[in-house]
Give the backbone structure.
Amino acid sequence: MSTRQTRTAARLMMSPAVVLLLGWMIIPLSMTIYFSFLRYNLLMPGTEEWAGLMNYRFFLTDPAFFSAMGNTLLLVGGVLTITVLGGIALGLLLDQPFFGQGIVRILVIAPFFVMPTVSALVWKNMFMNPVNGLFAHAAKFLGMQPYDFLAVSPLFSIILIVAWQWLPFSTLILLTALQSLDSEQKEASEMDGAGPVSQFIHIVLPHLSRAITVVILIQTIFLLSVFAEILVTTNGGPGYASTNITYLVYAQSLLQFDVGGGSAGGIVAVILANIVAIFLMRMIGKNLEV
């Protein structure tokens, strides 16, 4: 069989999966774009009418949109800060030889496999509950007043929950990068009189730059769509204090039954996510070329 025939056969075998994937993506996206141009409320069936760009204008000028955008940026930035710094620290710690190293690594990575809804419920009821939570009992033991995390600092609480979920991923990537570091470089720097801080700044950190970029890229794409943690813990409240773009689209579509407005918000969210993804892809591309 010639090379051309082999390529043709391979394309024919791949075509069902490609068609299924395109249908899985294009059909819902096309319907969302169509609904975004309609005045379509589920409480008033049969009254759909063409609205043009009205839904987009209302969504982009709604004060809740600016609040949700700010919360989204704070959520992504806060989680990335905790996971990158924590991942580096845990990676350096787990890279050192000690008894039970394999078991500790498994325990550190385990939270990444917990479902977001389950982890949010655990944090809400077992840790952050102001009456029976672990933090409340610790505060009472120290003679302090228990702190209601989800009511007083809802966004910060969600950042902690999401960071706890993503810290194992960051640790795993950075630990893998640390293990590929040439030990001869460290030995040579020690012979030149470099201390641990100098080694970290001039050898370890530059070596981790690519891995850090990959962690930021992958996590940012997923963190832009955080939803389950907010739904389970705060429902976006109090007010819009913990509402991000994803939850705002959900509230518009399924709580206010405004399918047109929610679809417009979904398209805006997709566009913003793609802009961020393209920017990060270019950044990681430049980093890998160095």
Notes: The chain has a mean pLDDT of 85. The first strand starts at residue 38 and ends at 39. Residues 54-289 form a domain with the MetI-like fold fold (CATH 1.10.3720.10). DSSP finds 13 helices and two strands in the chain.
